[in-house]
């Protein structure tokens, strides 16, 4: 039995003795100290009497911070297993199973693809079953799932293009309501709308969403996405997401907030195919977008382990190559750049999530060597570097502790989920992400 006491209502005055502490490893980077939280835990018997001298083992189970990655491979596995699906070849099934193990060993937030053109390539036949099965796979393993995106001008279904604008808008509203509603409870985090800065002026292809955005306007499109998603899932976390880190995106955020749009978090993309941002650019982006007081999610991060894309390419999609290999030198560089990038992001108190855009080079966007794992399923140094931080430096190793004279101990570590084992019985506790003093009471026996 777990009894939670909010210390703001029922504070405990216990000051745990040195022997009654379960401390996280020393934080190597002092800039990350604000991610560490403390929790006073008091053990009592069923009559409410304290249990001094009780032996407790503390183990971390998960992070409050979202270390994300895309889960597109899992959609392929799920689709193949559905009735009528095409079974995977044995070598493909083995590779995807291996990648899933590597994925789950590091990440706790999965982004799944809801691009309308592939999700509903034939009108009225959405891939709901495959996406639901993939989402359930992650949720069953304690992973938070995000859908990406509800509204976007790219990857649109061809059947939408010949329809009049009023019908396109009607179907777009219906699409947002259908998918945000049908997946509520399973997927409660969404990129509500993607890349709105460029949406009305996009010229790379002919699509119906860009066409209606020219009439409705950027704010009108944002309101459509947020209003319809919120109507069917009031508790959803909805993001405004973009790759444009210029003042244009800042102005768009200002206009959306002035129009009354309730944005839960800002999505900031960081595909670095032409080279790393570096600390100065990263800090500049963080400073400019944190001024809105909104939580920040780095939704799409890529760093290469091979040759960089030539800088003259403005649109990354324009660079098309058949072979883009990972190299030993590139892999070492990717590991260094990844560690620097993640440390800079976690050092900022407004950042709640970082999603890396692809686990492996297998099926990587643009055929680029941007994965953390090679195409054959072997980890690159960047994977090991990230795992070393997430599950090493920022992770509380199993720790034995004894309660003090008042039956209390202090649990200290990175915000997240923990288990306390008392005489073989396990109790779930949480170090909250919010910087508040909190205490819990565990009734043992």
Structure explained in plain terms:
The structure is a single chain. The protein is α/β, with parallel strands linked by helices. The chain has 2 domains: 94 residues, Immunoglobulin-like (Sandwich); 328 residues, TIM Barrel. Helices cover 31% and strands 23% of the residues. The chain has 11 helices and 17 strands. The strands form 3 sheets. The protein has an 8-stranded parallel beta barrel, surrounded by 5 helices. Helix 5 links the parallel strand 7 and strand 8. Helix 9 packs parallel to helix 10. One of its GO terms (molecular function) is endo-1,4-beta-xylanase activity. It catalyses: Endohydrolysis of (1->4)-beta-D-xylosidic linkages in xylans. Keywords: Carbohydrate metabolism, Glycosidase, Hydrolase, Polysaccharide degradation, Signal, Xylan degradation. Belongs to the glycosyl hydrolase 10 (cellulase F) family. InterPro entries: GH, GH10, GH10_dom.
């Amino acid at each position: 039995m777990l009894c939670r006491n909010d210390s703001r209502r029922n504070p405990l005055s216990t000051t745990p003795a040195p022997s009654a502490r379960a401390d996280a490893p020393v934080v190597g980077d002092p800039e990350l100290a604000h991610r560490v939280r403390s929790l006073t835990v008091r053990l009592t018997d069923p009559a409410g009497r304290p249990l001094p001298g009780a032996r407790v083992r503390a183990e971390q189970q998960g992070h409050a911070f979202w270390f994300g990655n895309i889960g597109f491979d899992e959609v392929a596995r799920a689709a193949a297993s559905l009735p009528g699906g095409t079974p995977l070849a044995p070598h493909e099934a083995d590779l995807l199973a291996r990648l899933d193990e590597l994925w789950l060993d590091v990440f706790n937030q999965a982004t799944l693809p809801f691009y309308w053109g592939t999700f509903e390539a034939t009108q009225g036949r959405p891939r709901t079953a495959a996406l639901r099965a993939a989402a359930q796979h992650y949720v069953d393993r304690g992973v938070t799932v995000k859908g990406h995106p509800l509204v976007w001008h790219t990857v649109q279904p061809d059947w939408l293009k010949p329809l009049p604008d009023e019908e396109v808008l009607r179907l777009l509203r219906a699409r947002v309501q259908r998918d945000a509603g049908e997946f509520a409870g399973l997927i409660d985090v969404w990129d509500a709308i993607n890349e709105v800065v460029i949406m009305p002026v996009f010229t790379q292809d002919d699509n119906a969403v860009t066409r209606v955005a020219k009439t409705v306007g950027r704010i009108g499109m944002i309101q459509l996405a947020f209003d319809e998603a919120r109507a069917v899932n009031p508790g959803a976390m909805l993001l405004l997401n973009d790759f444009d880190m210029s003042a244009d995106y800042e102005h768009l955020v200002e206009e959306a907030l002035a129009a009354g749009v309730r944005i839960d978090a800002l999505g900031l993309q960081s595909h670095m195919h032409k080279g790393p941002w570096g600390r100065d650019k990263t800090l500049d982006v963080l400073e400019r977008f944190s001024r809105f007081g909104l939580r920040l999610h780095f939704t799409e991060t890529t760093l290469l382990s091979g040759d960089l894309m030539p800088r003259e390419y403005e649109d990354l999609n324009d660079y098309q190559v058949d072979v883009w290999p990972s190299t030993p030198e590139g892999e070492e560089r990717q590991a260094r750049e990844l560690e620097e990038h993640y440390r800079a992001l976690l050092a900022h108190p407004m950042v709640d999530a970082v999603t890396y855009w692809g686990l492996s080079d297998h099926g990587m966007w643009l055929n680029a060597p941007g994965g953390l794992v090679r195409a054959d399923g072997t980890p690159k140094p960047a994977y090991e570097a990230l795992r070393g931080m997430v599950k090493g430096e920022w992770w509380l190793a199993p720790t034995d502790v004894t309660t003090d004279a008042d039956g209390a101990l202090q649990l200290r570590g990175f915000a997240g989920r923990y288990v306390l084992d008392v005489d073989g019985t396990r109790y779930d506790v949480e170090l909250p992400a919010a910087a508040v003093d909190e205490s819990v009471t565990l009734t043992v026996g």
